UniProtKB/TrEMBL annotation:
Coiled coil: none annotated. Residues 6-120 form the Glyoxalase/fosfomycin resistance/dioxygenase domain. It comes from the Bacteria. SUPFAM superfamilies: Glyoxalase/Bleomycin resistance protein/Dihydroxybiphenyl dioxygenase. InterPro entries: Glyas_Bleomycin-R_OHBP_Dase (IPR029068), Glyas_Fos-R_dOase_dom (IPR004360). It comes from Acinetobacter rudis CIP 110305. This is Glyoxalase/fosfomycin resistance/dioxygenase domain-containing protein.
Amino acid sequence: MHNSEINIVVKNSLDALSFYENIFRIERIEVGDFILGQNEVTIKINELYLRLLDENPDFNMLAPQNDTYIPFWFNITVNNIEQTYNQALNLGCTKIQDVNHMPEMGIKNAMFKDPYGYTWLLHEVIEIIDYETRVELLEKQGFKRNKD
């Protein structure tokens, strides 16, 4: 079997599992039952495998502080962006960008930061727009292509 996964450190993997299950449709792959600091959980969101590891300073596995900027985010496509986004905010996530409808690009998107310090970019696909059409739209907005 071949797959890829992203591993993230959180204060408590079981708490994070419960939290994420209240926002996303989660498939539980493995849920450990070790003591706090030694536990881990593997879940699947859409086709993304995500391993949640308990914070353990003895192994230099430190969860991000909520005020820390991490130049990385999870990009998740959902069926109902307004519902998913509002669920996240109601559970204590911090708004980064409200739902933004971009009909010319065929999508809606929104961003939030969860209490564990991680950023999530939600997408809802309204209509499939081909790559070249999207590029043309971006060029009209001032984006420049590298034509070397």
